[in-house]
Write a structure and sequence with these properties.
Blueprint (H helix, E strand, L loop, with lengths): L1 H18 L7 H6 L2 H19 L17 H50 L6 E9 L15 E12 L6 H13 L26 E8 L7 H8 L9 E9 L4 H5 L7 H7 L4 E8 L9 H7 L4 H21 L7 H15 L7 H10 L9 H22 L9 H19 L4 H19 L5 H15 L7 H20 L6 H6 L5 H39 L2 E2 L2 H27 L3 H26 L8 E2 L5 H15 L11 H17 L5 E5 L6 E9 L11 E9 L14 H14 L7 E4 L15 H7 L4 H12 L5 E4 L5 H11 L11 E3 L4 E3 L5 E5 L16 E5 L10 E4 L9 E2 L2 E4 H6 L14 E5 L6 H9 L9 E6 L7 H7 L1 E6 L13 E4 L5
Parallel strand pairs: 3-5, 8-17, 10-11, 11-12, 12-13, 20-21, 21-22
Antiparallel strand pairs: 1-2, 1-4, 2-3, 4-5, 6-7, 8-9, 9-10, 14-15, 15-16, 16-20, 17-18, 19-22, 19-23
Helix pairs in contact: 1-4, 1-16, 3-4, 10-11, 11-21, 12-21, 13-14, 13-15, 13-20, 14-15, 15-16, 16-17, 17-19, 19-20, 19-22, 20-21, 22-23, 24-26, 25-27
């Protein structure tokens, strides 16, 4: 019952959080019910349930009688006592069931109240305000124009006023002075009071919000703005400043799941109790402080725990500043080695670059960057040992009053909680600290409670205290990994000693036996470590795929030496340097330099390993859902339970079902011709991939699938737009992950439909790094270059002129030596160029693109995808909008249906014909009206008069209604999911995508 109730509590709370967004808001819940009180009630109810379940102890009826009593005189009382006990037992069971049901119900209420409380303070609409900003903790990233990294910081905003005009830093400084002079009043001549203004502030439910501040180098192009934005990273935890902010609500759950990487930003921010996001417009140059920020924190109305947390965060910030000294004189590799050292010490990953995070992810050791229970436990053991040594030397009489183990335990508890707070009190560190406390408490109370039950109790308690912790991946990975470790230790422990071996060994052969014993012990340890690592990898694989959508296969091998290196060398030396830093920063710097050198060499080793051809397919992409996870659990369950509890042969049926389900999911992605619209993170950059299964035995190159990738930049040439913040590295990594999740292992062709001026007009200079970063028009060609390193690519079509392509590729290979082993040749994508599949049913044709004309506006290449064959045997191409979070749940793209065109298309009731009209999808990529003007003058396409045509483009397209008429387009689809203005006069309506 213990495990059943605990599991149901977590499942029910997750279910409530999942459906809470669709439930109506009940303000009375927030006003009348306090989540802290509910958590206390839950703890009391759980204690009552545990005590009641242990209350009944069966007694033997014979013990109630004596040998001298007669049978007739004792039989009746025994029967009455038996009936009484049965009634009491029945009543106890009823009360236990009621308490268990109440515990589950109140847990659901706790999740609902917590959600409603978060909803009551969220920001619901964009708004520009001026506010008093209080920095909370340390920033997630540091603003650095050289590295192109932005500033992200959790903060609390109060004293909000709508921004009716732009303010300067001097204006905010005046507000700061007025704020101090008026005794925390926020009314002055430059701002409007919330109580007196006439602007609607219904979007702000309260005057206090917890937000995520952000600022980027591109937002600070003016020198004065760049100077004040550069000082954002100097803001200390607890410091307060007036700022002008652009508030925005959180992305909805649906919007968050449509991100290119599948990362659910909504759940991530909700898990951190963020009410909205804010972009910094202007900030005051002076903090709101009477004399010193430390005095401000000490004299503020914060609780004692909050003050302690602020002082600890100040220490983390000062340590970051110490590591950041001389940062820009280091090489990039040295910077990242130093950043990882800081992360392993304080959990501060603000200095770690995206490339380093991806390197650790590819190696399967990204979990080593987080502060785990190993860090906390190691420091607690070291400090406890040191404390015991001091007591032994100075005051051993203490053990007369307090046992030695209790002295060690109290020191471990204090060290664990302080260090957990110092590292941000994340789930793994908090779990370790609370487990140390709980296990010691069980020993004090002499209660026979297993460690696994303590672990489950902690998991439930953390969910009661903060239901949103269930949305954190660290919560699940931490508790599941520890549970698996405990279970592995229980089933693999075989007590044995070597005394018998040594006793039976003759004295003349002791040296030889000792050598063999060392070898056997070493081999046994290596085998045990490999079995443990393999056990953890297999057991954590389902939850890893469910949470992240991919898993590194090489993590099984690299973790073999990386875990030992981090656990026994890097982390102990790093923590030792942290302790020495309190006494001698100079000596600590020397030890940190040694640790940094080890990490730097490790990075170089992993980087070399990842460039090997054998590691080119390191990622495992498998579409997974809860059904697959359940089947995996059923497969592993016989090995989790005690040996002999159930037959391990029972794992065979779910294993077979699991293999069939995974194979069916993989085949379902390739069974029907599909054009996936891939999100890129930039509304003007489009990516789409065509998957076409070959329908006969004449597959090309012995393959049963054809895949083509289409890339385009739809920025209009005659309208100003914001420059793209995408980089070729980010776009290629995103597309590679998306293609991997679709089981695409090779590309038969890549088409860049937008021309690149840098491939035809500008000479590639002798400074490859600069030349590869300055121009945004090289984004798509560089993306193809980097993508070809991940996936074999047979053809590459490039719109416009490609005279400079060899020079660009050579420059890229200079900056990326690993790319020198493979190269790809570019072909011109121009009007008339055609590719056809081996079964003659699929063809790809370039409709536009005239590079001979000295006008880059007519170089863009529009592609036509034609699918022919006998109707009935031909499967139409479905157009789906790719869902990165769940590729199997990719939804049909919304369309504009041209009613008069659909009416003229042949119906399914028409008699079958030998040659039926082909199906055509036009992938438009024009950035100027001249493209289709020139096409109208030069081209005629007879096939367009009878084909069933769908138009895929962008809402900013310059195409005209006349072109759509001449092409006889029946359906219009846009990458940005907006209306195409040219199609409005043609009697359109919005509908859901349906195959013709």
């Amino acid at each position: 019952m213990y495990w059943l109730v605990g599991g149901l509590i977590i499942v029910v709370m997750m279910g409530v959080l999942a459906v809470a967004d669709s439930m109506p808001s009940v303000s009375s819940l927030v006003d009348t019910i306090n989540p802290s009180i509910l958590a206390l009630i839950l703890v009391v109810m759980s204690l009552a349930l545990i005590m009641l379940s242990r209350l009944y102890t069966p007694a033997t009826p014979a013990a109630q009688s004596t040998p001298f009593s007669s049978q007739t005189s004792s039989q009746s009382p025994v029967i009455e006592l038996s009936i009484t006990k049965r009634l009491l037992l029945l009543a106890r069971h009823i009360v236990v069931v009621i308490l268990a049901a109440g515990l589950i119900g109140v847990s659901a209420l706790q999740a609902l109240v917590s959600h409603q409380q978060a909803e009551s303070s969220k920001i619901t609409a964009p708004l520009r305000v001026q506010a008093l900003v209080t920095i909370e903790g340390i920033s997630d990233s540091v603003l650095d124009a050289a590295a192109d990294t932005g500033y992200r910081q959790v903060a609390v905003i109060t004293h909000l006023s709508p921004l009716v005009s732009e303010l300067t830093p001097q204006d905010l400084d005046n507000i700061t002075a007025s704020h101090l002079a008026d005794g925390q009043s926020h009314t002055n001549k430059n701002s409007l009071s919330i109580k007196s203004n006439s602007i609607n502030l219904d979007t702000l439910h309260t005057d206090r919000h917890r937000i995520l501040l952000s600022a980027y180098p591109q937002s600070s192009r003016r020198p004065e703005a760049a100077k004040q934005f550069a000082n954002l990273s100097q803001l200390k935890p607890g410091e307060r400043r007036w700022m002008s902010l652009a508030l925005s609500p959180l992305a909805t759950a649906k919007q968050a799941t449509s991100s290119p990487s599948g990362f659910d930003s909504y759940r991530w921010l909700r898990g951190r109790h963020i009410d909205g996001v804010a972009r910094v417009l202007v900030t005051a140059t002076q903090p709101v402080s009477t004399a010193d920020t430390d005095l401000l924190v000490a004299s503020s109305s914060l609780s004692h725990l909050s003050r302690v947390r602020t002082y600890i965060d100040r220490g983390r910030w000062q340590l970051r500043q110490h590591f950041y000294q001389g940062w820009h004189v280091l090489t990039g590799d040295e910077q990242q080695a130093k950043a990882v050292t800081l992360s392993l010490l304080t959990g501060d990953r603000s200095l770690i670059s995206r490339d380093t995070k991806e390197l650790y992810q590819l190696a399967g050791i990204s979990h080593l960057l987080a502060i785990s229970g190993t860090h906390v436990l190691f420091l607690a053991i070291v400090l406890a040992g040191a404390a015991v040594m001091i007591v032994n030397q100075l005051y051993p009489a203490l053990y007369r009053y307090v046992p030695r183990w209790q002295v060690r335990w109290w020191v471990m508890i204090g060290a664990a909680f302080v260090y957990a707070l110092f590292t941000g009190f994340d789930v793994p560190a908090a779990r370790t600290a609370w487990m140390l406390f709980a296990i010691g408490l069980m020993r004090l109370s002499l209660l026979p409670v297993s460690t696994m039950r303590v672990l489950l109790a902690l998991a439930v308690l953390m969910a009661w205290c903060d239901p949103y912790v269930l949305w954190q991946a660290g919560y699940w990975l931490s508790f599941v990994a520890v549970a698996l470790l405990l279970k592995y230790e229980d089933r693999s422990y075989h007590p044995h000693t070597l005394a018998s071996t040594q006793t039976n060994t003759p004295s003349s052969h002791q040296n030889e036996a000792g050598g063999r014993l060392w070898l056997r012990q070493g081999w046994g340890v290596a085998k045990r470590v490999f079995k443990l690592q393999f056990w953890l990898f297999i057991a954590l694989l389902p939850i890893t795929l469910l949470l992240f959508g991919k898993a590194s296969l090489w993590g099984l091998i690299i973790n073999m030496f990386a875990i030992g290196l981090f656990g026994w060398v890097i982390v102990p030396l790093n923590l030792l340097a942290g302790l020495i830093y309190l006494l001698s920063p100079t000596l600590a710097d020397g030890l940190w330099s040694f640790v940094t050198a080890i990490i730097l060499n490790l990075h170089q080793l992993i980087d070399w390993l990842t460039t090997l051809p054998a590691l080119s397919a390191a990622w495992l992409y498998t579409p997974i859902n809860m059904a697959i996870v359940l089947m995996m659990v059923l497969v592993i369950l016989p090995w989790l339970l005690p040996r002999g509890f159930i037959s391990r042969g029972l794992a065979l049926p779910p294993l077979v079902l699991l293999m069939m389900t995974v194979y069916a999911n993989q085949q379902s992605l390739m069974a029907v011709p599909t054009l996936y619209l891939l999100p890129t993170g930039d509304q003007y950059i489009s990516a789409s991939v065509l998957q076409y299964p070959m329908t006969d035995d004449s597959g090309e190159s012995g393959e049963d699938e054809v895949s083509w990738l289409f890339l385009a930049d739809h920025r209009p040439s005659d309208a100003p737009t914001m420059p793209s913040r995408l980089t070729a590295e980010a776009l290629s990594a995103t597309v590679a992950q998306q293609l991997g999740s679709l089981s695409i292992k090779r590309l038969h062709g890549v088409v860049v439909q937008s021309s690149s001026a840098d491939l035809s007009q500008r000479q590639i200079n002798d400074d490859p790094p600069k030349s590869l970063q300055d121009s945004t028009s090289e984004l798509l060609p560089l993306t193809v270059l980097q993508l070809s390193q991940h996936l074999p690519t047979y053809q590459y079509w490039q719109a416009g002129r490609i005279d400079r392509w060899p020079a660009l590729q050579a420059a890229y290979q200079v900056t990326h030596p690993a790319a020198a082993k493979s190269s790809i040749s570019a072909q011109r994508c121009e009007e008339g160029k055609t590719w056809q599949s081996a079964n003659n049913k699929l063809s790809i044709t370039a409709m536009t693109g005239w590079r001979q004309i000295e006008d880059a506006s007519v170089w863009d290449c529009t592609i036509a995808i034609d699918l022919s064959g006998i109707k009935g045997s031909r499967m139409p191409i479905q157009v789906l909008r790719y869902n990165a979070a769940a590729p199997l749940k990719s939804s049909a793209a919304s369309v504009q249906a041209l009613l008069d065109r659909l009416a003229t298309q042949p119906s399914d009731s028409s008699p079958p014909q030998r040659h039926t009209p082909p199906e055509r999808i036009i992938l438009n990529a024009d950035s100027h009206a001249r493209v289709w003007q020139l096409w109208s003058l030069m081209c005629t396409d007879e096939r367009a008069t009878s084909a069933q045509i769908r138009w895929l483009g962008h809402s900013t397209s310059s195409v005209t209604a006349d072109v759509l008429e001449r092409q006889r387009v029946g359906v219009v689809i846009t990458h940005d999911d907006k209306i195409l203005p040219a199609a409005l006069p043609l009697e359109t309506r919005d509908t859901s995508m349906a195959s013709p």
